[in-house]
Amino acid sequence: QGQLVESGGGVVQPGRSLRLSCAASGFSFRSYGMHWVRQAPGKGLEWVAGIWYDEGSNKYYADAVKGRFTISRDNSKNTLYLQMNSLRGEDTAVYYCVRFSEEAFDIWGQGTMVIVSS
Amino acid sequence: SYVLTQPPSVSVAPGKAARITCGGNNIGSKVLHWYQQRPGQAPVLVMYFDNDRPSGIPERFSGSNSGNTATLTISRVEAGDEADYYCQVWDSSTDHYVFGTGTRLTVL
User: Fold this and answer.
1) Contact at 8 Å (CB) between B43 and B94?
2) Could you tell me which residues come within 8 angstroms of residue B29 by beta carbon, excluding any fewer than 6 positions away?
3) Is A64 at the interface with chain B, CB within 8 A?
4) CB B42 to CB A62 under 8 A?
5) I need a labelling partner for A7 at 20 to 30 A (CA). Which of A37, A96, B85, B108 fits?
6) pLDDT digits over A21-57, tens only?
C-alpha cells in the first residue's frame, strides 16, 4: 500500500538551514503529488508545501513558509525533499511527508522532528 | 484565508454515536476529508470526498457535508476510536490546503 520514511530532522539554531528527505516505497512515486504537513508540539495539523507528480511543475507553499522553504523531488530516487532556510522558533514541529491521491492525503510518514532553538 | 472550525472536544459512551462537526463558509460546496490521529501516531485518512471510506476503515464511520457544516459520525463507538480528528479542504482561492482546528474524541 505504500510507505513513506522521513529523515533529516534535528535541533538547529534560529536563522540556520535544514533539509528534510522522504523516501517512498511500495507505490509508483512518480505518479503522485506529494506534500509536507507539520504539527507543532500540542497543536493541530498545518499544511506546509506541495508539489505535483512531475519534478518541474507546480509547487505550492503556505504563507508562513513561502520564500524560506523549497519543496522538490527526485523521481529517479523516489525521494521528496524540503529545504528549510532562515528557520524560526515557530517552525518547531513534527514534519510529515504525505502522498496526495483522490484529492486527499492518503498515506502519511511517521514524521521527523525539527526543533529550532538557540 | 479559509477557516475550518471544530469543537475542541467531544465525549461519548462506548456503543453510542459520536458526531464531530466542521464548520466553514459554504463548506458544502467543497470536497472535504477527515483524518484520525491516535496519540503518538501519524494521522490516518478515515473519510474522503465527504463520505467515502478508504479500505480498512470500518462502516461505523460516515460523513456528510452540506451548507456551512460537515459532520463525521462514528456509530457504536469503541475505545480504539479515541483520537484527535481533523477535517480538511482545498481552498481554491489561495491554492492552499486547510485543516480544521481538530477535535479530541474521548470515550468515557
Assistant:
1) no
2) none
3) no
4) no
5) B85
6) 999 999 999 999 999 999 999 999 999 999 998 866 7
